[in-house]
Design brief:
By secondary structure, the chain is α/β, with parallel strands linked by helices. It has 15 helices and 20 strands.
Length: 453
């Protein structure tokens, strides 16, 4: 408890050190608006913000009263972006996952905010840091939603950050809700796993269904980790609200594509985690460059520092995970083209990786308008927060990103940010408590411009 009080005090000090600006009444004038719904951009819009919500959207003559004017001429406004699948955790020398400490998590969440990602969701972590950070000051941190520990099978995937279940014991599920305060529930349905690894046990469809039903009784959405089509079908049959990944370990069937489109089951895209391995496999010299260590675990960093590059590159999982990327990209696009709901998620933990996810979606063949919807409204749908997040409309929370360039012409324009507004607060990006401050942001953006051949 003393440690928790210490970190809450540290967060309060960070908050006091930030810009003193408070939410008020703002009007963004004469901006080109891309509202996140997939509708085309509309020029010469005025967006009126009252405290933490959007009060009105209209034309040049929209009455704004005494609102402070933000000049949007020549600029483009999109909703605050969302990464619906991150993990504020690392992997120790023993290979086991553990939670980031609060200071490191704060730097990561400040980095997301500085890069225009106003909401992120941690889909599986040990108790402690994530419960503290979910209430961080919106001036210095992206909004954090959490799943807490995930539910898996004894001997199943991610047992080191999960609770192994053999039944949907109401007492166990109630204790998880009471102690970890989840915003949604995460389960694991995967007995195939990664290449080079042994098989694992998975939850039965009956147990999945029982957990879903109990979670729904308490108003909690359930998302499920999957790898293959059979996993995804089991999760859907059990009533899951979303999939934490697309089918990525194999090509999906046309029947499954139509099922996803018909049922409107949202799924997180998670292309960037495969791309991470691919870059390093193709360009091992990058292992020595600090700007390519954005998304590696601490254990991997230590091996690299120790000169164990060869062992890293020989890992079966590295080569196999890289090979899944083209299949995963095709699977995502097929479902989107059929009318399904893709939501941006990286399975990583940096704003740079989230922007890289957008680049990969564009490279897969989706239009910039589709990619922006995936990173905004669709991600809010995945998290069950589309009533208040994910698009620009009256009544929604004022999470907005003002861009200097047209993202319809170049998706990388989402990195060229003039202003971030979070909860109606204009964020002082230069004052954010990001490790390395402006230099970290420059480094993150340079990483996104890396050679991808």
């Amino acid at each position: 408890m003393n440690r928790k009080r210490k970190w809450i005090g540290a967060l309060a000090m960070l908050s006091q050190a930030c810009s003193p600006a408070l939410a008020g009444r703002y009007a963004i004038r004469d901006v080109t608006m891309i509202d996140g719904t997939g509708r085309p951009a509309v020029r010469h819009r005025t967006i009126l913000i009252d405290n933490d919500h959007i009060a009105a959207v209209g034309g040049p003559r929209l009455p704004i009263g005494k609102a402070k004017v933000i000049d949007g001429r020549g600029k483009y406004l999109i909703p605050g972006m969302i990464d619906a699948h991150i993990h504020l955790r690392d992997t120790g020398p023993d290979g086991k996952k553990h939670s980031m400490d609060v200071a490191t998590a704060q730097a990561a969440l400040a980095g997301f905010l500085a890069l225009g990602f106003t909401t992120v969701a941690d889909l599986g972590n040990l108790p402690g840091t994530v419960q503290i950070m979910r209430n961080a000051d919106p001036r210095i941190s992206a909004r954090l939603l959490i799943a807490g520990r995930l539910f898996t099978s004894p001997g199943g995937r991610n047992a080191d950050i999960g609770i192994a279940l053999t039944s949907a014991d109401p007492a166990v599920l109630a204790r998880h809700r009471l102690e970890e305060h989840p915003d949604l529930i995460k389960m694991v349905e995967d007995n195939g796993g990664f290449g080079g690894q042994s098989t694992a046990t998975a939850l039965s469809t009956e147990l999945l269904r029982a957990i879903v039903e109990e979670s729904h009784r308490h108003g909690l959405r359930v998302v499920v980790h999957v790898a293959r089509e059979t996993d995804a079908r089991n999760a859907i049959a059990a009533g899951a609200d979303g999939l934490a990944h697309p089918v990525w370990a194999e090509a999906e069937s046309e029947d499954f594509v139509q099922l996803m489109a018909r049922r409107r089951i949202p799924f997180a895209t998670t292309l960037a985690v495969a791309d991470q391995y691919g870059r390093l496999m193709r360009h091992p010299e990058y292992l020595d460059r600090p700007d390519y260590l954005l998304v590696l675990s601490e254990a991997e960093r230590n091996r690299i520092r120790a000169g164990q590059r060869a062992q890293f590159l020989r890992q079966p999982v590295a080569a196999w995970r890289e090979q899944t990327l083209p299949t995963e990209m095709r699977n995502v696009v097929r479902i989107v083209r059929a009318g399904g709901i893709a939501a941006l998620g990286t399975d990583l933990v940096s704003g740079a990786s989230s922007h890289r996810e957008m680049q990969l979606l564009r490279q897969a063949g989706l239009s910039p308008l589709e990619v922006i919807r995936i990173a905004t409204l669709n991600a809010a749908v995945f998290l069950g927060r589309d009533r208040d997040l994910g698009s620009i409309a009256p009544g929604k929370i004022a999470d907005l990103v003002l861009l200097n360039r047209d993202p319809m012409a170049d998706i990388d324009a989402t990195e060229d940010i003039a202003m971030v507004m979070h909860d109606g607060l204009v964020v002082d990006r230069a004052a954010l408590p990001v490790a390395g401050s402006k230099e970290l942001l420059r480094r993150d953006l340079r990483a996104n411009q890396a050679v991808n051949s």
